[in-house]
Design brief:
Helix content is 32%, strand content 26%. It has seven helices and ten strands. The protein is globular.
Amino acid sequence: MESFIDLAGVTKIYKGQAGSVTVLEALDLQIEKGEFVAMMGPSGSGKTTLLNILGGLDRPTGGTVRVGEQQIDALSSSELSRWRSQNVGFIFQFYNLMPVLTALQNVQLPLLLTRMKASERMRRAQIALDLVGLAERSKHRPAELSGGQQQRVAIARAIVADPQLLICDEPTGDLDRQSASDVLALLQSLSRDHGKTIVMVTHDAKAAEYAATTHHLEKGRLLEASAPTA
Ligand SMILES: Nc1ncnc2c1ncn2[C@@H]1O[C@H](COP(=O)(O)OP(=O)(O)OP(=O)(O)O)[C@@H](O)[C@H]1O
């Protein structure tokens, strides 16, 4: 069966005044639908670059990237941003919530780009907040929430438009151990119970244990994938 995500011969080269830097080199990668993948590797190995290419935030210099039915390296930049808004949810280390908006309003943000009615936006945002266990915090602003709660609001925002793919860049990098494990258990359940495909960059081997597969990047190349030991 075809994989959900297929990268073939992906190369990324940055050309600058100091010369060109090859960040990803002839990279092949397959990810299955509903798989939770951790991406590890030393600083500068190309993890964020790879994540950005997978999520359609950046394009490869060479090679092909298919996500679901869509060959995303072939899209124009406006097609790519439209594709992104319908198919990818992003979760970052520092949550990126709007401080003046309530949790419920933050979660609704991705739906403002659609033609959805306000009542439907509100309904979906409430469902997403409920799913991350924060229904009773819907009127709170980010400053009134803990780091772990803010990250869960960011996850609700990432899933509210029902994307198939979640891209997470160090989602627990700023959290204490307990909040981190709550967030990781939530991501795990989104893949297991809701069929979301999740790709997470992390420096933390304990965080990677929540994923079904761990890939290691080194100098722009993937080493052999490993299954969790736990
Ligand atoms: N816009 C750019 N122009 C030139 N070089 C870049 C650019 N973006 C990234 N790089 C280089 O690409 C390499 C990989 O960067 P990337 O951010 O993907 O690594 P990373 O594995 O995510 O690192 P970290 O763990 O430190 O975040 C680095 O050497 C970086 O300097």
